[in-house]
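Thread: Newbie trying to understand structure tokens

Hi all, I'm a second-year student working on a class project, and my supervisor (Dr. K.) asked me to get a predicted structure for one chain before our next meeting. I've only ever worked with sequences, so writing a 3D structure as a token string is new to me. If someone could post the tokens and maybe explain what I'm looking at, I'd be very grateful. Here's the chain:
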Amino acid sequence: MNKFKGELLLLITAIIWGTSFITQKLGMNYIEPFTFGATRFLLGSMCLLLVIWFFDNAKRKRQARTGETNVSTMKRKDLLVGGILCGVALFFGASFQQIGIVETTAGKAGFITALYILLVPIFGLFMHRRVDILTWIGVGVAVIGFYLLCVKEGFVVQQGDVIVLVGTIFWALQI
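---
Reply by user tm_fold:
Sure, no problem. This is what the structure looks like when written as tokens:
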């Protein structure tokens, strides 16, 4: 049952993620990219604050009941620096994606953004992580897909596709 539940949650996540590109594209008919991004992240922050409050409350109750103490192995400075770096990468990834989606289709933007899945292990090479052969096959297939989807006659790629691709690099760096 847990396997089915996990797969169902992954399916729901994929549906929400995939359809969000349509919403982003339609949103550009009414507001500018940075306004859309600011509204999107403001709403997300409010929801996240509720989740943090809920889990923090549950943690305090559990600690009061069991008598355990709050032991953190992470230094506050490390969390702050990591949070800022991830936030900057998230800002640039979302901004480039939103600006690029104005000049490309939602489907192409979704495909190009999903290339971050392949960029993460490639960036891992710089951290001395081993990349297996199946990942390289996936990279090859994705590059062929990108070519077939985005490269036009005369080996030209639309400006919106390039902008979304730059955003994809920041999404991968954020991960």
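A couple of things are worth pointing out once you decode it. Helices lie at 2-27, 33-66, 76-101, 106-114, 116-124, 133-150, 159-174. The chain has a mean pLDDT of 88. Feel free to ask follow-ups in this thread.
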